[in-house]
Design a protein that fits this description.
This protein has one domain (2-91): Alpha-Beta Plaits (2-Layer Sandwich), CATH 3.30.70.100. It has three helices and four strands. It has 93 residues and is α+β, with helices and mostly antiparallel strands. The longest helix is centred in the first third of the chain and has 18 residues, at 15-32. Helix 1 packs antiparallel against helix 3. The protein has helices at 15-32, 57-65, 67-77; strands at 2-8, 36-43, 48-54, 86-91. It starts with a strand and ends with a strand. Strands 2-3-1-4 form a four-stranded antiparallel β-sheet.
Length: 93
């Protein structure tokens, strides 16, 4: 299993809009992305994180290069971001 963590710096007043983007693309992510097994939205005082679960790291890397992420999700989130997203990939053993 692999985890893809994307940390987003989003102002508190824009977090509801970011949550809407998460909600809009959660099911398409689970239904269409190969190897996707879960997706969670984590809201903290200083940022928002999206934690994705995949069968393996290769599936996570393919998602990052695919249209759903690069065109759809990123396109809708870009106006809400205060800084570039931080992306981390964790592979379990």
């Amino acid at each position: 299993m692999a985890y893809l963590e994307i940390t987003l710096r989003i102002a508190p007043e824009n977090r509801a809009a970011a949550a809407d983007v998460y909600g809009k693309y959660r099911q398409p992510f689970l239904d269409t992305v190969p190897g996707a097994t879960g997706k969670e939205l984590l809201v903290r005082d200083k940022d928002v994180q999206v934690l994705h679960r995949f069968r393996n790291a290769a599936d996570a890397e393919a998602y990052l290069a695919g249209d759903l992420f690069t065109r759809d999700v990123t396109g809708e989130l870009s106006p809400l971001l205060e800084a570039a997203p931080e992306t981390r990939l964790y592979d379990t053993v």
